[in-house]
TrEMBL record:
Keyword Transcription in annotation: yes
Stored PANTHER family: MANNOSYL-D-GLYCERATE TRANSPORT/METABOLISM SYSTEM REPRESSOR MNGR-RELATED, MANNOSYL-D-GLYCERATE TRANSPORT_METABOLISM SYSTEM REPRESSOR MNGR-RELATED
Top-rank taxon: Bacteria
Name of the protein this chain belongs to: GntR family transcriptional regulator
Length: 245
């Protein structure tokens, strides 16, 4: 195996092993190295290795059986993230009928106000992927404008995004790097639409909109993606069902 270049925690190990599975270094049907071999390779504890293997199992990449080992089952994650309150289609994303119409991919420095809004370190540089969200059944009027910010370590994902307009960016990150979403925080605000975005959305500048910010966290509680979506008021709504516990 190749050595791990970054700090060794279970998220790093899970990512490294996922890349090995995706590249074919660990083919489907074969066994991964034993827990002790992984401990020695990554110079870490058995607890950390087991946490990493649990992540791979949650992704559907491997199966684990006592006295047999960890078997590679798939080169691609097979599980779906489900929030506790509603479905991904209803609450977290735009649904399977919506695709990205890519507008721009750039590196952006997080100035003070933006850094505070996104909960990023001021002065850090993140990759920004800007796109219009289009309804497959009605591609004349965009559903909204979305800026997705991802860690600079994943800069190469930009090229993959260009060729996968119907796949969520978080899914692309999960597939390529094995960094699985553990938690998403969402905030909805009422805003007015600025001139550049208003023109792209084909609405009047200053008209009302919903601004939805989502923060994506991995199993270690680290933020690795933020999305900011602007939706004209008459084209998008958020609904949910609450039940008495």
């Amino acid at each position: 195996m190749n050595s791990l270049p970054t700090k060794t925690n279970f998220v790093n190990i899970a990512q490294h092993l996922t890349e090995g599975i995706a590249s074919g270094r660990f083919p489907v049907g074969t066994l991964l190295p034993t827990e002790m071999e992984l401990c020695n390779h990554y110079t870490t504890s058995r607890h950390t290795v087991r946490a990493a293997l649990h992540e791979l199992q949650q992704l559907g990449l491997v199966s684990r059986k006592k006295n047999v080992g960890t078997r590679v089952e798939s080169t691609r994650p097979t599980n779906d993230f489900r929030p506790s309150l509603a479905s991904v289609d209803d609450l977290v994303q735009f649904g399977s009928t919506h695709v990205r119409k890519l507008q721009e991919i750039v590196s952006e420095k997080m100035e003070d106000d933006l850094a505070t809004d996104l909960r990023c370190k001021a002065g850090s540089t993140w990759l920004r992927i800007s796109s219009l969200r289009m309804d497959g059944a009605n591609d004349r009027l965009p559903v909204g404008w979305t800026d997705v910010y991802i860690e600079p370590a994943y800069a190469e994902i930009g090229e993959i995004v260009r060729h996968s307009p119907g796949v969520l960016i978080s899914t692309l990150i999960e597939t390529r790097y094995g960094r699985r979403i553990e938690q998403i925080q969402q905030e909805i605000r009422a805003v007015t639409i600025s001139e550049p975005i208003a023109q792209s959305l084909q609405v009047d500048a200053g008209s009302t909109a919903l601004k939805i910010i989502r923060w994506y966290y991995d199993a270690a509680g680290d933020l690795f993606e933020v999305s900011v979506s602007i939706h004209p008021a008459e084209r998008f709504s958020v609904s949910m069902l609450l039940k008495r516990s």
